[in-house]
Design a protein that fits this description.
This is Transposon Tf2-9 polyprotein. The chain is 45% helix and 15% strand. By secondary structure, it is an alpha+beta fold. The protein has two domains: 70 residues, Reverse transcriptase/Diguanylate cyclase domain (Alpha-Beta Plaits); 45 residues, no CATH class. Strand 3 and strand 4 form a beta hairpin. The longest helix has 17 residues. It is elongated, with a radius of gyration of 19 Å.
Amino acid sequence: MGISCAPEIFQKRNQENFGDIQGVLIYFDDLLIAANSIKEHDEILAKVVQRAKSLNIKFNKNKVQFRVPEVKYLGHVFNVAGMRPDPERVKAVVELKEPKNKLELQRVLGMLNYLRRFVPHFSTKTAALREL
């Protein structure tokens, strides 16, 4: 049986180990490198690799991706233009069936909530539904 707070511990350790490196984004066991150019990316990557070596940290070669122009991550797509919702998640929301009861409506609102940062005045637009 594992430790129930293991993800938080892992997040903390990764933050301690790599959090000071500019351009490194950390989420639990994932490290993302965000850079404006390949040169900058490679400089940040070199710092991460050097730090990992000094701490005897190994990365899973089957999971590592280098120099990708776009990353699907946590239901979003990140690229040089910024962040947008993952089209697959949007499709799932668009294809939702009309809710038939309060519980189904709450589920729909939960899924719609994922898109709130991309919909101006989301709260106003969904207020009537939340009042049902």
